[in-house]
Amino acid sequence: MKKNVFTIAPSAPFLKTFAKAFLDGDVVEGFSKKLGPLALAEATIYVPTRRAARALTDEFSRAVGASATLLPHILPLGALEETETSLIFEEGAGDELGQPLDLPLAMGDIARRMQLSELILSWARALRHAIVRVDAQGGYVVDARESFLVATTAADAWHLSGELAGLIDELIIEDIDWERLDPLVLPEFDPYWRITLDFLNIAIKGWPKILDERGLVDKARRQVALIEKQSIKLREGRWQGPVVAIGSTGSNRATARLLKAIAESPKGAVVLPGLDLDLDDAAFALIGGDGEHEAAFTHPQAAMSRLLRTLQLSRADVAPLGETSVSQRLREQFLSQALRPAEATDEWIAYRGRIDRAMLDEALAGVSLIEAADEREEALGLAIAMREVLEAPGQTAALVTPDRELARRVAAELLRWGVAVDDSGGDPLSASPAGVLARLAIACAAEDMSAASLAALLAHPGVRLGFLRDDIGRLSSLFEIGVLRSSAAGERGARVVADPARAIAMARAEARDRFAHPAKRRISAPEWEMLEDLLRRLAAAFAPALALEGEHDLKSWISAHRAAIAAITAGEDARTSGEDVGALDALFDELFANATAGMRFDAESYGFFFAAVARDARLRGPQKAHPRLKILGLLEARLMDADLMLLGGLDETVWPPQARADAFLNRPMRAALGLTPPERKLGQTAHDFTQGFARATVILSRAQKRGGAPTVASRFLQRLAALGDESWRGCVLRGQVYVDLARAIDRPLAPAPPIRRPAPRPPLELRPSSLSVTKIETLRRDPYALYAERILELAELAPIGRAAGPAETGSAIHAALELFVKAHASGKLPTGARDELRQLLRDGLKDQLDDPDFRGFAWPRLEKMIDFYLRFEAGRRDGVEQIRSEISGKLELTLGDGSPFILTARADRIELAKDGSITLIDYKTGTPPGTKEILVGFAPQLTLEAAMARRGAFDLPPDRDAIFGLYLKLGGADGGEIKPVDFAREKTTFMDVADDHFAALIALLTQFRDPATPYPARPFPKFAKTYNAYDHLARVKEWSLSGETEGGA
Asked: Where is the PD-(D/E)XK endonuclease-like domain (predicted)?
């Protein structure tokens, strides 16, 4: 029987070549456009994808021109697997005779995954405990102390359900009886495989019963049944018109049987994509089949070799369609030789002897290789090449890559020229505006309304809460500054939402503090009222979700989730339409309709589950994409053509992908079942590579590092480089042009001038005329920081959801000591002094003491500090007449230019001794400054306070000239440390140093009264503070010696 099987060379434009041959009558004997404009409509043509169907329609339209013609029925091939093409007929299409198909409907993807997820969770719950071994009878010996850690959450189960669904589809497609799972656990297998097979026996054998109860079938089973119906119809001769299948490699059994029926039909034809007619028979015999050598599955021709066996044909029986040029033939021959089976590469020597350098150069003339340093450079190089195409009128380009991250990067880089590109892989719903908003909303509930989650939600442009966008934008900023960056929010914001009035009252009180951030102090009373209204609306929006304490079913969570989103997005100018909004609604509807009773969630697990489901839902690319640029996955690229083909991600584990192990069956088990090995996918991707590489103009790309880790060039590139030798180096040089452009495009035309240390010179009227002694230290160490704080009036915001830290603990210690000392300003301490001080400190730290970590780690150290402090007090009280705590002082100065200046201070503690001396004491919960640091004037707080005290700034009794300084370190392993400020080793006294510092202060302040005196950043790196809130503003790392800060500079 005659078999009408053809092939189109990979270098030829497949659809254009086929359309011409079909219309000319070269495909189906006696059938051509000469039969008239109505005759073509009798034919049916199957193509791999909907994209290819649209492209073939366009090719036919161009070929017939302006004449009125009814085109053939062009139906897309469906996908039985993600990377597998097969002839799938439209749902509900009926058969060719107009009779309805007597097949149950297919279960939807989400409904199927939900059912399988519940099966997986039921299995995990039944086991509950970790299995430590499997006994000789196959029973499980468990450890009740450990939990079973497989699929412990619904999100885990959802992920595994995809693996299980894929395995079920494979068994259906390959026509494997599920009963064959029973005898798989052989003595040579680890007994632990019994656990997996027990589950598979429950799940896979029980799955048909679940489908039967619902009157449904698996989509794969329905598709196989449809294919079989068409095969039977063709074999029985009931097909009325011509039928042609193009672009399929018949890589599964049902499709191969259909292709065989079409090929044997009198009016049928099969057109194969890129069958290698150049490879010698000996090498081709190593490809395909059931052999154990690598080429059996990994060679580009492996699938078609098996298909030819099914069709009972040899390559000599396959007729080529179309014509190719000499250079294209040279490219095809080179490609065939480069990728020949490893066992037959000894033929390379003979091949190189048959062609000269000029022929090899001609074969590779249109090939360029981008070898980028990393994935960013690779994406930018590809984007530049695609943008270059747009400079030539009518030219097209298509990027083909299995790497979704690379596709997204290229699309993003093209936006720098305002070019939106159609990405056939689409984007996950979870990354769309509506999907991100949905994830942020459930994150708020899952994180107990934490300040960080609320800030992220309110920053989303889709949030309205009943306000207009401009109003909610302004209120969100005020809410973040006034509430979320206050102690009212804390680490958890549930209390903020639970009692809006209390939360706003706390925030307002904090804003009235003299140390509050200026932005907080600027919030007006009406604005505080609006913030309370905003908080009440947030509380109402999340009330249903927050009411779901513990675990609840999926329907309850979906209802609460949708209610929150509806309230969040409600507003006059809200965005209520769009593909992502519709897709999100459809996803909620389908999840709600298919929710199972066995899947229960708390807020956190529902959040993970929703994110996983939304990540699997895909959205198409931009609706207004550029018509001449495409980004295609490997499946979508089959049969497609462009003037420039770009093949991206040519690194091992990317293209080709790594052969991935089955989640449920090991390799020997798959072989025992009759399933093809994972390497089959490598063969399919190799064929995709050859189809793209053979185009006239092609750019290949790879990255030497991905994710910061070195990569290995794709085996395809390694083969081409080995055979191409010097000619291949020309491809690398041509690709280097795009690498150089990628490196240069963001490089400034001239070297950036070195950044100088900032040294602003503000006018005198803006310079401060009053400073505290602590700010004098800042002026000495880092004048720029003082400039930013006092002249620019910039202040660092507290972190969002800030928890009380060391600064708050230090303030509480100071406050407790102030109250304690004022209550006992003289004389010996009472008997209950420890309990009194302890209670004062507990009152000041009541919020921190709610934290178990603080109670367990920090509070015991504070108890030691209390004991140390009381010992310190006991040792000093006999010699002290009076103690004054937290005393403010002010001293009016006259500077060298005659201008007035006010110096202020607040002393932690001043002791008036019975011998007439004064001791100034500064509490330090951190590390006190060293003697040298004090001596040279970089820590002048105590010395300047002493100079002020001598000049009457603190309203102390007169005639007390003997003044001393002391640092009291509070905290540490021993509870604290007494550090007197003593300069005996430097052969000077504390007051001599204080007088020197005071004179230096007058000179320093006078110097800053000169308009020419700048406020430089970190003029003394060695004495600069480790952390400075204004370093980024001063761009310290740009002008400092090494980009790093020496001593904090």
From this structure: 770-1015
